[in-house]
Design a protein that fits this description.
By secondary structure, the protein is of the alpha/beta class. It has a domain of 139 residues: Glutathione S-transferase Yfyf (Class Pi), Chain A, domain 2. Helix content is 40%, strand content 19%. It is built from eleven helices and twelve strands. The strands form three sheets. A six-stranded mixed β-sheet has the order 5-9-10-1-11-12, sandwiched between helices. The protein has a three-stranded antiparallel β-sheet with strand order 2-3-4, with no helix packed on it. Helix 5 crosses helix 6, helix 6 packs across helix 7 and helix 6 crosses helix 10.
């Protein structure tokens, strides 16, 4: 990697089982994880723009990653960004793919961090983005349908009323694929999400943890809903139905966790979502994803920390690769103390 945030230029080779990276706040731990997983969807895991990823004294950045699976070398994924031209170039073994979608998901990882609480405490957009990133990696054709949907959404209200039906047909066709993939995922993983909430520390009550996907169109077919809302949408300047307005609902005790959950309950739900994300990638994308713990235990009580540690220990035993970032070596959870410990300071990693 070169020119990425505050990190020193150079190469790193992760041990097969993973490692622990110890360093004080501001030393570059989160940036290192960000660089490791940039090649997953070629965006910052923290929502930063590409320009914000460029080191202060650099004209751009370059990140290259080669993944090995069961001893077999996979293609090298590289991405370069030029801050002067604002151009980004992605290559697979040095060749530019016909479509960016062909390179997405060749690097796979999941990050657990205290900031994940926004997945539960934040608005519906946070959870839709979570679904879109995950399903773009796990469901063939999802990223293409999402791209077509977003382009049609941007055009529907820009032209004349006579042009709207054509854009609505594109929205309906691709929106149905998006919503169906989201519905299928939520239905498949709802019980596992509930199990993980209980395993991490939620009380076993009735009704317990619950996850479901709800469509804003209700019982209407999407095309009919778009036609029905056409006049109102033109007046308000926004499309009111479709997957961009749908919701992944998380509940506990029959109540919305966003509105009624405690801080501990929201953190538990967020960690369960991230673990489900990792298991989804493992089951659909051909192998174990790297699990990155970015100070993940920092804001957990003792009981939840212990239970999360036990859950991670089981995944390590199954062969998951774990990269854990902690402020000090004494903060390393017992379950991870068998992993090699690296240190980081002022962006430089010492193995």
């Amino acid at each position: 990697m070169q020119g990425f945030r505050s990190l020193a230029d150079g190469e790193l080779e992760l041990p097969e089982a993973g490692c622990v990276v110890a360093g004080p706040n501001g030393s570059g731990k989160s940036s290192l994880i960000e660089a490791l997983l940039y090649g997953e969807v070629f965006r910052s895991m923290r929502g930063a723009t590409d320009r914000e990823l460029v080191k202060f004294d650099a004209d751009g950045f370059h990140v290259r990653c080669t993944v090995s699976a069961t001893g077999n070398r996979q293609p090298a994924i590289a991405c370069g960004y030029d801050a002067r031209t604002k151009q980004k170039k992605v290559t697979i073994d040095g060749a530019v793919p016909e479509r960016l979608a062909d390179a997405i998901g060749m690097v796979r990882g999941v990050v657990l961090s205290p900031g994940d609480v926004s997945l539960v405490a934040g608005g519906p957009r946070e959870r839709r983005r979570f679904l879109d990133v995950l399903l773009s990696l796990a469901v063939p054709g999802y990223v293409d349908a999402l791209g077509r949907y977003r382009r049609a959404l941007a055009q529907r209200l820009k032209g004349s009323p006579q042009e709207m039906p054509a854009w609505e047909r594109v929205l309906a066709e691709n929106g149905r694929r998006i919503a169906q993939a989201r519905c299928d995922w939520a239905a498949r993983w709802a019980s596992r999400y509930a199990e993980l909430c209980l395993a991490i520390g939620e009380r076993d009550s009735s009704p317990g943890p619950h996850m479901e996907y709800r469509e804003r169109a209700g019982d209407w077919a999407l095309l009919e809903a778009l036609e029905h809302s056409r006049e109102k949408d033109r007046e308000r300047g926004r499309t009111s139905v479709g997957p961009h307005r749908d919701e992944l609902r998380l509940q506990l005790g029959g109540r919305d966790l966003r509105a009624y959950g405690s801080a501990g309950q929201q953190r538990t739900a967020a960690m369960a979502l991230r673990m489900v994300e990792a298991e989804t990638l493992e089951s659909t994308a051909g192998g174990v994803a790297t699990l990155c713990l970015d100070d993940a235990f920092a804001e957990l009580d003792e009981d939840r920390s212990r239970k999360l540690g036990l859950l991670i220990e089981r995944q390590v035993e199954r062969g998951w690769q774990v990269v854990a970032a902690v402020p000090k070596e004494r903060d390393i959870p017992m379950v991870l103390r068998s992993l090699p410990t690296w240190t980081i300071g002022e962006g430089a990693v010492r193995t």
